[in-house]
């Protein structure tokens, strides 16, 4: 864990008033140090408000947090998820890390999934898949399905139902023929209220259409086989995964079965290979040449030293527009914690992750990004821009405009526009003193630009694995357990109590507000 003294040293380095623009002048080789590449993924951190000297201090701090030792524990399959006494081995799902026995089990599961997908795709009986799941059982598959749209042939339609709001399952089955539809209930615990309710409604929909054949059309993906059997899924229709796979890290497991069915095992395998490349990079590269480490340290600098409370993730690529939603769970459910592994106050940890696709955000919240105040040292919020260099839509003019906007926004955030410059632009006018400040841009606002040479399954795998390992590194530095999620339990328990009372009509003991709210829906 980083010590207060280490953060104070770093804070001092941040008090040197040198703009990002000046850093380029002072550090002529800035790009060599602040741009890193792993395969088709290039990350440019040079527009961060971070000097080379401060980066060296951050790396020293990371080393003193036993980061290399923690990294070794992670890949060795040690109990890194200490509060649940579990290993954390999502990397093993793509062939990196874990024991020989773990690797053997993973290979068997991958074979089983691929054979099943090949069978279903060649038989042609099913035309549609309804993937039912929420959180990590939904966000990854949903993001990746969109991403695969750019680079792979979709053979079966893929619908998702996640929310317990009836609109979710209604939209998922609307217009589908049950005789041609395969329902996959994805739930690590097989205890999630939304998923079980959606699964029951999907089963009723199947039964209405095909009677008892419904059980031939239902699969389960879970780490709780007994739960799936109790729910009524046939044993042979259950795909297992392990408790050392965290929900938000599970798209690589059988949770991704619907992706294999819709796009084919080869596409999914390439996706796994991309993540494996990033795994090996993270495992083998020294800290100072390590992409996830660099990304994590930039985040620590912005959060703990420059006092930024959020991070904007803005993919300039419609096919990965759901990246911010995916990262909200990956980052905020992993590191949104106030207590360390040893039960002490943790201080500042995970920022708020938010964002939307570019260029849309330019017409929504970029006003705030450019001119908004914030707790952060330079105002606004740090931005992760993600751009795909190759045009997948055969619209070269559109793609050039998309990239130009992405690159321009990071430049504008950094350079800003001074009041003096605005005064010259406006020229003599009565309201000059009021207008010039309003039309000036403070600039010096930090961003990272990640580019993917193309939106391939491989590059998408690298991108997601990059963020997974960034989260791990930050968790080590903040000394929080990135792999449990006790914070989601209380709401679930109270929801069950309130639902029972609403269903039975018997009110329990609640505060006046909750009681009044419940009275609003009393029959
Ligand atoms: O949000 C809480 C959580 O447990 C997540 O960690 C998980 O991804 C999601 O709910 C769904 O859980 P399950 O896959 O067990 O249904």
Identify the overall geometry: globular
Instruction: Report strand order across the widest sheet.
Output: 1-2-11-10-8-9
Largest sheet: 6 strands, mixed
Radius of gyration: 25 Å
What does this protein look like?
Strands 1-2-11-10-8-9 form a six-stranded mixed sheet, with helices on both faces. A five-stranded parallel sheet has the order 4-3-5-6-7, sandwiched between helices. The mean pLDDT is 97. It folds into three domains: 4-64 and 285-478, Rossmann fold; 90-271, Rossmann fold; 490-519, no CATH class. α8 packs parallel to α9 (193-210). It has helices at residues 4-14, 20-26, 30-34, 52-64, 67-76, 100-123, 139-149, 166-173, 193-210, 225-231, 257-263, 265-284, 291-305, 323-335, 366-371, 396-415, 419-426, 432-438, 457-478, 489-504, 512-520, and strands at 35-38, 41-44, 128-132, 157-161, 181-186, 218-222, 238-240, 310-316, 352-354, 383-388, 447-452. The chain is of the alpha/beta class. The chain contains 21 helices and eleven strands. The longest helix has 24 residues, at 100-123. 6-O-phosphono-beta-D-fructofuranose binds next to loops.
């Amino acid at each position: 864990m980083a010590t207060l003294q280490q953060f104070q040293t770093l804070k001092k380095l941040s008090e040197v008033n040198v703009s990002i623009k000046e850093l380029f002048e002072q550090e002529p080789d800035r790009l060599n140090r602040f741009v890193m590449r792993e395969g088709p993924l290039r990350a440019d951190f040079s527009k961060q408000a971070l000097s080379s000297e401060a980066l060296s201090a951050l790396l020293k701090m990371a080393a003193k947090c036993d980061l290399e030792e923690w990294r070794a524990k992670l890949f060795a399959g040690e109990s890194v998820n200490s509060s649940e006494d579990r290993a954390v081995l999502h990397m093993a799902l793509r062939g990196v890390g874990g024991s020989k026995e773990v690797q053997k089990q993973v290979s068997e599961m991958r074979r089983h999934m691929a054979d099943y997908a090949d069978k279903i795709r060649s038989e042609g009986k099913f035309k549609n898949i309804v993937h039912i799941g929420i959180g990590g059982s939904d966000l990854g598959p949903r993001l990746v399905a969109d991403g695969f749209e750019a680079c792979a042939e979709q053979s079966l339609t893929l619908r998702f139902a996640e929310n317990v709001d009836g609109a979710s399952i209604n939209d998922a089955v609307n217009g589908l023929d049950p005789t041609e539809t395969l329902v996959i209930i994805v739930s690590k615990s097989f205890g999630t209220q939304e998923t079980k309710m959606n699964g029951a409604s999907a089963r009723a929909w199947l039964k209405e259409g095909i009677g008892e054949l419904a059980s031939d059309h239902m699969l389960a993906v879970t780490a709780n086989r007994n739960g799936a059997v109790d729910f009524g899924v046939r044993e042979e229709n259950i795909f297992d995964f392990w408790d050392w796979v965290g929900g938000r890290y599970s798209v690589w497991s059988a949770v991704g079965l619907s992706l294999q069915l819709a796009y084919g095992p080869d596409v999914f395998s390439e996706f796994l290979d991309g993540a494996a490349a990033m795994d090996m990079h993270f495992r083998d590269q020294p800290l100072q040449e390590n992409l996830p480490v660099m990304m994590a340290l930039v985040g620590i600098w912005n959060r703990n030293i420059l006092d930024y409370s959020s991070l904007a993730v803005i993919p300039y690529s419609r096919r990965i527009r759901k990246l911010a939603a995916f990262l909200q769970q990956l980052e905020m459910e992993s590191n949104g914690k106030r207590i360390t592994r040893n039960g002490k106050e943790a201080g500042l940890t995970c920022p708020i992750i938010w964002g939307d696709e570019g260029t849309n955000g330019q017409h929504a919240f970029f006003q705030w990004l450019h001119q908004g105040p914030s707790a952060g040292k330079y105002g606004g919020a740090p931005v992760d821009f993600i751009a795909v260099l190759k045009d997948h839509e055969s619209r070269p003019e559109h793609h050039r405009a998309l990239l130009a906007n992405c690159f321009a926004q990071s430049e504008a955030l950094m350079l800003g526009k001074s009041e003096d410059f605005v005064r010259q632009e406006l020229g003599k006018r009565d309201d000059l003193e009021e207008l010039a400040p309003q039309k000036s841009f403070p600039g010096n606002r930090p961003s990272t630009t990640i580019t993917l040479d193309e939106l391939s399954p491989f590059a998408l795998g690298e991108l997601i694995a990059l963020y997974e390992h960034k989260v791990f590194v930050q968790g080590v530095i903040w000394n929080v357990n990135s792999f449990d999620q006790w914070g989601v339990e209380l709401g679930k328990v109270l929801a069950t109590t309130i639902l029972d009372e609403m269903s039975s009509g018997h009110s329990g003991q609640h505060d006046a507000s909750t009681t009044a709210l419940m009275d609003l829906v009393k029959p």
